[in-house]
Amino acid sequence: MSFWNGLDARERLLITIAGILLGVLALWFLGIRPVINAKADAKTAQTTALRDLEIVKSGLPKLGGGTASTGTQAFDRNAVIRTAESAGLNLSRVQPENGGALKIWFDEASTSQIYKFLTDLTATYAVSVSSAQMTRKSSGTVNTTITLQPVGG
Prior knowledge:
single chain, alpha+beta, 4 helices, 54% helix, 22% strand
């Protein structure tokens, strides 16, 4: 306190103004600006998500949209392995699910290989795709998780 009292009135005024200015700048950069930017970022994310939704909706008819397959052969784990090998894919993981379903993972695969795999599998075996998730990597490949459900039987 002795430091503050030892200053001239003009010096105290300058330090007070600098403190207020620093407080206003901190409030702007740490409080107000992030909120404004978050709103704009959320709008951009929403626009991107809506665009992605339209792309997926337009591609669903080509994949069968999760409907029953045209294949008649019995579906099992070996069918997945054989079809993946013929499509040039390496399975990362195969996990059994309830009701005879299988959850499968592919890492670093091309989208055309994944689509060929799904087309061949559903055309040959009595199986449908109940869910699929693709994550694009910076290398242009995708990591994919697919849940396959046997049809009938």
